[in-house]
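Help!! Second protein's tokens look totally different from the first
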Amino acid sequence: MTSNNNKLTVMVTGASGFLGNELVNQLLQEDNIRVVAVTSKPDDIKLKYLSFDLLALYTSNWQETLKEEVDVIVNCAFPRTSQPDELAKGILFTEKLVRYAHKLKIKSLINISSQSVYTQKDKIITNEKALISPETLYGMAKYSCERIVELLCKEYKMNYSNIRLASLTGLNFDVRMTNRFVDAALNGEKITIYGGKQKISYLEVRDTAEALIRMILSEASEWENAYNLGNNEAVTLLELISIVQRESRKYNKKEINVELLEEKNSFNNLIDSNLFYSTFNWRPNFTVEKMIKELCKHKSISG
């Protein structure tokens, strides 16, 4: 079911965040989609999308002022923090969002959750049947939101899915290890790593938005209640460093000093995303090597 002359109207919460911003950007390129953006920082996106057909932009009072008929909500709004008070606000927002969605007769909700609902230690099962075992306050808060979404959406007979998202990376997401390693390599700084055999995997934010749009355009009544969304490609920490060394040398001829310290940590942030891949006929475009190549080029130009 679509509204507005057969165009699908999609509301994105957290629209000025790392993922929300990219999702809005890509949704606006789709001819058959209209976008409603909800953000606590409207100035961050108002000018950026001035030339696009952004249907509406709302802040915290969207529940009382929403005039558009929305088909799908993608909830990207959640604090990236470990502060208990901020996490509590994120949980409360999720509950209010689902309740208001029901009140406004919105039929479908995609809730962005996190792989942190699983253990981050080495594990055998990494698909959606893996044991739920949050090890951080953030992971526990994300799982709490999943339960809120599941219980309320079932009560309200809303289509829903919790997307357990992998670790994201992107050109300007400098908190991520990939970006920090590339910065250090280009600046000729020492890189210190612990262990080196830990397996890591990243999903590029542009791939993530593309995958979510593929899901948005599908039949919501057929969604599974939870999907892992990540990149099935994995590298060890040492392999990641090797790629950074090789690619950064194209822009910086200095030798990179890598200090390897002992670490027995069995960290493993892998998730099996085959269910999402097969359901929506989608695969990531960015490999780790492609991410690093683009990062090195981008940072060498931007200085």
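Here's the second one for comparison:
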Amino acid sequence: MTSTAQPAGTEGRKAQPDHLGHVIFITAAAAMGGFLFGYDSSVINGAVEAIRDRYDVGSAGLAQVVAIALIGSAIGAAAAGRLADRIGRIRVMQIAALLFTVSAVGSALPFAIWDLAIWRIIGGFGIGMASVIGPAYIAEVAPPAYRGRLGSFQQGAIVIGIAISQLVNWGILNLAGGDQRGELAGLEAWQWMLGVMVVPAVLYGLLSFAIPESPRFLISAGRRDRAKEVLAEVEGQNVDLELRVNEIEHAMRSEHKSTFKDLLGGKAGFLPIVWIGIGLSVFQQLVGINVAFYYSSTLWQSVGINPQSSFFYSFTTSIINIIGTVIAMVFVDKIGRRPLALIGSAGMAVALALEAWAFAAKTTGGTLPHAQGVVALIAAHGFVLFFALSWGVVVWVFLGEMFPNKIRAAALGVAASAQWIANWAITASFPSLSDWNLSGTYVIYMIFALLSIPFVLKFVKETKGKALEEMG
């Protein structure tokens, strides 16, 4: 499932002003999947310690409960494209909304650790589907002249979802008197944290009934008249609708549907460009970014910060993530992808080194010395900022631009799968690594941040300002 290619001359078309507001509504509704992607990915941050205490589970078992959603995400992402081509983009959104809803209710009312893990996997299916269907749908309904800006709604929604999940967790914790297992209306605080996601999940499902099916899918299903109606909705009545339908049909017929075999041929199995894409995806995760979103509350509590403050710092980190993402969106086309990646790598390496130094200090009564505590807090926010303004956005831009047309879809799938696997590896290993040596764990992440610099300098070519057809 790919976005519609546009023949020459269509890029200058703009939606009529009275239609643009409707297009923005459609885009925002689709981007609710991105919001839930971010929300469901990070909401577990607030429940980790309560789950450990409630079910008396060790670090290794706890890590699997947190990380298992990523297995579901990989499966959901792999299935979403083909499913959307068979039943439509809107139906896939509705399935994802149902999965998010079921996961939220089940996660809030588990009777054992193993069924909590099952609900987490189900939520992961929704995350994976939302990660694919949102960007694809937006690309297919957005007028060409606005596609880049509207496409950024998905990434914006993800980081806002992360921030809102942390704000909700902090609010619930305060209502429970600072106790993650404190009782509220018959449930423990952590159960409410996981259950509140039912609200945006239901909203996502309702919004999916208020937006039109993708013109591309309608044409593939032989519903040309309905496709024209949708194109009129998003691009205006002044557009030659018959011509637009013919253009989309032509683009679909001329597309090369890449397969896994197309990626083979290099000395190491894959073509060199595919390995570079895999490298970008893996480095994005091996610097340990998701530790900040899945375990930050646990991390701060482990060095003596009280739960309410630790939850608040998780929220402020999420705000920094939003700020960094906006910076990246502003500068990615101005200074280029490679410079941003290199700036981010250097900044992350320094921040991670400072965190490693701070966590190496001996604690007194389980609390870091004041100076080290301040440095750790500032460095943690700095790490997220440098990641967000660089690798958080740049990797996705690179992956969308760097592959030749004939292998783009298949290569993107392989790179995205590598990213989910690396994400799982970091998420599943952190609790055990931190039990072994918290400072040493951050040294490992710092080494990966440093290694990403020569990787970018030697292997990654700048894609700024180049047409997709130039990638060879």
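Reply: Different proteins will give different token patterns, so don't panic. The chain has 19 helices and four strands.
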